[in-house]
């Protein structure tokens, strides 16, 4: 194992001990990125940012987790700026979210794939496998496996980094899914489950609702005939209770 892989491995073990964790989500590309859209006009960034938003909300349900975005809705953030931000903030995990494409016309290429750097960092590979498995199970799409690539966001980050491809914009059926809010939530849930399982994240305890102002009342019965009310009251007295019979119009 090289030094880079060792650092990432030790980092993951450290995080599993319950220390505060910083996660960066990267919705790939931007509104104005040329060519990153389906043949019928779906912009990849629309899908990517939606999944990132859902994933952020889900991750915030876990203890000791802070989520950052590498992207922006205001501009197309350059790749160097994204990785510089991640390194400056010293985040522990970097997840780039994308939708795939094969050419620029409709075709049959389809499925889910997840990438790690060509150096095959151990912890990144383990995280990628968990995310890939959850995405395939949740979406039901073809399993294209965990792959390696020399993508900038995988090469220039100093932390565990993976890139997920959640379906093909050039596949008619999958493009329909990519437009679906349900599918976007499904992808976010699968990605977060993979992260949570890998880092052993714990959900925040559910807080009880605030106490209601006023009084709580218990009514044992309501009758049109007074004698029936008195019969129930007598039975309750025998059982050790102190009932009150009153008439209400």
UniProtKB/TrEMBL annotation:
InterPro entries: MurNAc-LAA_cat, N-acetylmuramoyl_amidase_3, SPOR-like_dom, SPOR-like_sf. The keyword Hydrolase applies. The keyword Coiled coil does not apply. GO terms for molecular function: N-acetylmuramoyl-L-alanine amidase activity; peptidoglycan binding. SUPFAM superfamilies: Sporulation related repeat, Zn-dependent exopeptidases. One of its GO terms (cellular component) is outer membrane-bounded periplasmic space. Residues 210-249 form the SPOR domain. This is Cell wall hydrolase/autolysin. GO terms for biological process: peptidoglycan catabolic process. Keywords: Hydrolase. It holds the Pfam family Amidase_3.
């Amino acid at each position: 194992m090289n030094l880079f892989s060792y650092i990432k491995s030790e980092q993951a073990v450290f995080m599993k001990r319950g220390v505060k964790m910083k996660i960066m989500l990267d919705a790939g590309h931007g509104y104005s990125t040329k060519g990153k859209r389906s043949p019928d006009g779906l912009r990849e960034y629309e899908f990517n940012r939606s999944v990132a938003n859902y994933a952020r909300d889900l991750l915030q349900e876990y203890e000791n987790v802070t989520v950052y975005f590498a992207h922006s809705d205001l501009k197309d953030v350059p790749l160097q700026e994204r990785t510089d931000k991640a390194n400056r903030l010293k985040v522990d995990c970097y997840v780039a979210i994308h939708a795939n494409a094969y050419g620029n016309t409709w075709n049959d290429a389809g499925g889910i794939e997840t990438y790690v750097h060509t150096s095959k960092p151990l912890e990144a590979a383990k995280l990628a496998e968990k995310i890939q498995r959850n995405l395939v199970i949740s979406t039901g799409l073809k399993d294209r496996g965990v792959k390696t690539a020399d993508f900038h966001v995988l090469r220039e980050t100093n932390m565990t980094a993976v890139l997920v491809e959640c379906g093909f914009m050039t596949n008619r059926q999958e493009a329909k899914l990519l437009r679906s809010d349900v599918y976007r939530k499904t992808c976010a849930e699968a990605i977060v489950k993979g992260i949570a399982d890998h880092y052993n994240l714990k959900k925040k305890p559910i807080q009880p609702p605030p106490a209601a102002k006023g009084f709580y009342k218990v009514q044992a019965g309501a009758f049109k005939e007074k004698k029936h009310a008195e019969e129930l009251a007598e039975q309750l007295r025998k059982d050790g209770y102190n009932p009150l019979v009153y008439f209400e119009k």
